[in-house]
Amino acid sequence: MLSGVEILWAPLAPLDVVLVQGLAGVASLVIAALLVAMGVLSWCQPHLRSVLGVVTVVLSLASFLTSNLGGFLVGMVLGLVGGSLVFGWTPRVVSAAVLVLLAAAVAVPPVCAAPAVATAAGPVAFSAASMAMTGLAYGGVVEVPTASGPVRALRFTMDTLTIDRTRLVAPGLSLRNPRGAATLTGGVELYTTSISGLLFGAIPVLFTPRLPPPFIPPSARFTLARATIWFLRADHAHLPTLREAAT
Amino acid sequence: MTGRTRWRRFAALMAPATLAAGALIAFTAEGVLAASFAVSGQNFKVSAETLEADGFAQFGAVDAGAGGEHHPVAPAGIRSATLTKLCQSVLVPTPFGDMTLRITAGSSKPVTATNLVLDADQLGGDATFTDIELGRDASTLDQVPGHTGPRGRFGQQAAKVSLTNLEVRAWKTTAGTFNLTGMKMVAKFGRDECF
Predict the structure, then answer these.
(1) pLDDT tens digits, B93-134
(2) Is the pTM of the predicted complex or chain greater than 0.90?
(3) C-alpha–C-alpha distance, residues A190 and A128, integer Å
(4) Interchain pair A233, B134: CB under 8 A
(5) What is the C-alpha separation between B16 and A100, in angstroms, rounded?
(6) Where are the domains of chain A?
(7) Among all residues of chain B, which has the CA nearest to that of A147?
(8) CB contact residues (below 8 A), chain B span 38-97, against chain A
(9) What pLDDT score was predicted for residue A75?
(10) Which three-class secondary structure state does DSSP give residue A202?
(11) Complex-level ipTM
């Protein structure tokens, strides 16, 4: 329904509160920090939007009591609007009008490209202690041609992908790189139906084609990363301690 | 009892046979003949200091067992490879204890192979791939001619692969050509495997 741009109001609201609240005490700081956290979380965890929206609204109302009338009303109103927007936001039910508006606003709509080759019938279970990406871009939800029919998957491209303690379990073959970082560089493409982990080691995230990422930073680091991978390619890959086992 | 060996006749066959055997060994060692290595119901170890390959394709396990024995292998195909310090060893249990059969080659000049297929159940090393694709349908693999798997099976391939300190446990290796330069074959009692 709503573009991510509009949700930006949520994290903006508490900033206002912080700037304006002055010496009104610890409670206001706590509420401001929580509002910031709600804003960040609503980006990263869109599936929690109902809860986050309600909490944001309640916190905004509380900020009226604790911090200079809710940052001279502006912060509170922004918080109320942002929280309600988060609450009301629904992924992927984009009406044509909003799409046109969105396309106009973004100017360059994302190019959705499926892998050029057919993939195996089943995905690969991926896990790693951490994974770091640079030149990261989200390419939207694409249809991957698999041997068991088309599968909707998230497409990510990146310049480099560095993975600590890689573990890939495919039907019949497992690959590990237990020591040293595995590095993939150049034209890295990743097609996944589920990717989760702790963004920057702290924020739990889960992205699926039904819950696509509202925003992706150009470089990111995940710890305790897990993903269901249908296809992965790279110009170069170095696995210093590759261990393969047939299963 | 009543017979005798007609030594001329013996020599008439033995001499050319010896020559032929010698030529076969020499040709294999010089890499003129193709070679295939398989031990029935027994895995063996292959190691190499370096392996530089053009065209690599591998797919998920197929059951290579025969006659009640089952063991999964993930067949790895290599279109053309250059290997140094190649070693293949197999441990054979005998009534007098274990015996190791070991073939080494490529210590002075590299070994080359084309259309090499390793039916491996374990493979390890320091690996660098170029143009790697992971998750491809095994039936559509195209980096090694003829090396494809069943449709729907997990497959991976790369245009080039470079492996150092390669260690493979395999059930079978086959090669279109295998130029085993400087081949040495040693059989001895005890465990003396490649790794």
Answers:
(1) 888 888 998 989 988 899 999 999 999 999 999 999 999 999
(2) no
(3) 15
(4) yes
(5) 86
(6) 4-88, 124-246
(7) B152
(8) 58-62, 72-74
(9) 65
(10) coil
(11) 0.80
